[in-house]
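Risk register update: the risk that structure generation would not scale has been downgraded. Supporting records follow, first protein first.
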Amino acid sequence: MRKLAMVSTYNSSFVKRDEEILSKDFEVKNIELAFKSKGQLFVKYPYYLLVLAYHISRAYAVVVQGGGYHSLFSALLSKVFGKKCYIIVIGTDAIKLPEISYGNYCKSLLGFCTSMSYRLGYKLLPVHRALVIQDYTFEDVKYKSQGISAFTKGLDLRKINVVENGYDRTKWHNE
């Protein structure tokens, strides 16, 4: 069975669900790159780079949950080892709302890493089409245009495949 490296920053329910789905066709190695504080970033990343390099070099492909620092290192190492890197765009990694300090693109280094990983990734898999491009009309905000194509200049839109996140509409509905 082919090996798949799955990279996330938090082993959430949707990460576990994706791992369960992918485990039907792949041997999945879940790599959690978690930080309790920003100060751990530079302390833990050298170790994480070694862990990523080890698993990515042995994997058929890499699946990354969300854009950010972790996706940039995953995408770069995927290029080094000639592997395909699929990045699941989950929400905050496609938004810039400085009015409420929300979104990866509100922080310049995090926004840069997110954009670079999207350009380097083999395929981008947003969980909703609004994460590709949308006009934000709910409030008056500085950045009306939201989504990965609004903030990632030079993005090849042909590598985007929207994969709806599969919530149960019968369970979550407005009465």
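Supporting record for the second protein:
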Amino acid sequence: FCLFWVAARVLVERASGHLGRRLLLPAAKPGKKPKKRPKRLAAKDVRRLEKFQESVWKLFAYGSLVAYGIWVVHDEPWTYDSATFWSGGACPRFCREWPACSVVEYKASVKLYYAAELGFYLPGIVMLLVWETRRKDFLVMLAHHLVTVALLVASHRVSLLRVGAVIMLLHDISDIPLEAAKMLNYVRWEEGSTAMFAVFVVAWVATRLVYFPF
């Protein structure tokens, strides 16, 4: 999965680069003869194009993870009843002394979901260090990636995959409209960016402030 996500990013950014150049280059005004497109972007537009490509990539990645995550957990009873996170033998490996406790064997699809997420965040740390545009929140994002990897590994190690899978899905959903809003902002479509940011706020509140804690 690490190799898959790296290859996917190369392909997605290459494709989005061609699209971004067309969107970022100035268009001719109505009634005027179109100007010859410049072969190179200005320095400020190059930086904006790089950010646009990153947002397209993250939109693709989070969209893929959410789509697969929904397919994995949509028919599981523990998705809708959080009490079942801890019942039916779904006990942590370090708590075998609990009454009637035994470690359950999870479906291959759930394990694959974990592998896909871990395979995304591990190279994501390297990408953040050497690939992506350095931003003001660099240290915050680096800490976020490191903590996410630690949580994925630890929850898998102690067999808390039910609650882990649902938490992963809840935290990825709101990233889709967020990256879409950024992408539209970079191509200077203010109305579309504002609308997607509003969708992000609703999704973030619903998944992280309502469903997640309750």
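The mean pLDDT is 83. On this basis the risk owner (M.S.) recommends closing the item.
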